[in-house]
Amino acid sequence: MTFSGELLAFLILAIVAVMGGVLLLNLSKVVHMVVALVFTFVSLAGIYVMLSAEFVAVVQILIYSGAITIIMLFGIMLTRHNDTSEVKGGRLRKVLLFLGVLGFAFAVYIGIYNLDFNSPAANLHENNTEQIGIALYTKFIIPFELTSVVLLVALIGAIILAKKDDEEEAKKE
Fold it and tell me: Are 35 and 15 within 8 A, CB to CB?
């Protein structure tokens, strides 16, 4: 097996993505968890670039690494929360976690064992942004619109919940 630059870049990006996820689960401070999540998001965007999905990579950077992360940080800063750390589990938890990771790795290995990576993908580099737009607004228009309605309902619900908290605080004072 020869190591090309593309394989090396993929391995580095994959390791950063996995390590970001592991750090997200193991860190105790919430802000540090968000930073680990940003590393995962950015490395996934790099993998998308390697797959010639530049539009998806840019959306990954703008939406997830930018907007979602900022919203999470604002949510952390603007809410009251006790900064007590959770009691870490003992050896049994670590062993079960390790077995779960090994099981997942084995399932991924079984899933990709017989794949043929030597055959070229059809139309990979040709107008991928246009193809996404056509598919999104023709074949997947109903799920796209339903998602926008669900997000709107979630936004209205968050506003109502925040307003109730403000009213309860005003009554206490």
Answer: no
- Which residues have CB under 8 Å from 9's CB, separation 6+? 46, 50
The model carries a pTM of 0.61
Alpha carbon separation from 35 to 20, 25, 92, 99 (Å, rounded): 8, 12, 28, 26
Is residue 152 a part of any domain in this protein? no
CA distance 107 to 28: 29
Decide: residue 60, CB within 10 A, 0-12 exposed, 13-18 middle, 19+ buried: buried
CATH code of residue 133: 1.20.120.1200
Q: Say how far apart CA 171 and CA 173 lie, in whole Å.
A: 5
Closest CA to 124 of 132, 112, 116: 132
Count up the domains in the chain and report the number: 1
Determine, yes or no, domain membership for 43: yes
Summarize pLDDT for 82-99 with one digit per residue, the tens.
655 556 668 888 899 899
The boundaries of the domain holding residue 106 are: 5-81+91-139
Decide if 11 is inside a domain. yes
CA distance 31 to 114: 41
- The rounded distance, in Å, linking the Cα atoms of 66 and 34 is 11
Residue 166 lies in a domain: no
